[in-house]
Amino acid sequence: MTSHHFPWITVAFLALLCWGCSRKDRIDRYQLTGKVTYQGAPVGYGTIVLEPQAGTGHGGLAPTCYAKIEDGIYTTPRADSPVAGSYQMKIRGFDKAKMKSGPAPGEFMETPVLFDEYVIEIQVPTKDSQFDIVVPSSKSEAKR
After folding, report:
1. Can you give the pLDDT of all 144 residues of the chain as single tens digits?
2. How far is Cα 123 from Cα 87, in angstroms, rounded to an integer?
3. Most-buried pick from 46, 65, 72, 96 (CB within 10 A)?
4. How many Cα atoms are found within 13 Å in the side-chain-facing hemisphere of 105?
5. Is beta strand 32-38 parallel, antiparallel or unpaired with respect to 73-75?
6. DSSP letters of 27-93?
């Protein structure tokens, strides 16, 4: 190979490398969205964590996913949505009315809990889906 081909081969190799790295992952992810209510009212602020269960994903590997609850609505970010399969969904709600707004820099922001962490098992289907969540008012309701 002559030396004048070297720059073009290098450029082609780097272009291929960049193209491969630009694809975040090669797994099919399915976006979840829905409403979250507690005591009949939308949850003003909270979090959802989706933890994959055994056997979910390609070769047993699946992402843990997160979503914010705002004004009773959540949506998993497209690039960080779950794959199809079984997940444990952990829902936490915070009392937005009692949250201190604008804490000073370095000040710890207290987040008053609206309800204890609510945990359910869900099946993520092979398509984008809506999944509404009704958080029970008491632990005895959750066991029904």
Report:
1. 555 555 555 555 555 444 444 445 578 999 999 999 999 999 999 999 999 998 888 777 899 999 999 999 999 999 999 999 999 999 999 987 776 666 677 776 677 899 999 999 999 999 999 999 999 997 545 444
2. 6
3. 46
4. 0
5. antiparallel
6. S----EEEEEEETTEE-SEEEEEEEEPTT-SBTTB---EEEEEETTEEE--GGGPPPSEEEEEEEEE
Residue 83 corresponds to which tokens in the numbers above? Answer: 């794959």
CA-nearest of 133, 68, 121, 132 to 94 is 68
Strand, helix or coil at 3? coil
Closest CA to 80 of 119, 120, 49, 55: 49
Structure tokens belonging to residue 106: 């370095």
Beta bridge partners of 100: none
Give the pLDDT confidence score for residue 93 in this predicted structure. Answer: 96
Q: Which domains does the chain have, with CATH numbers?
A: 26-142 (2.60.40.10)
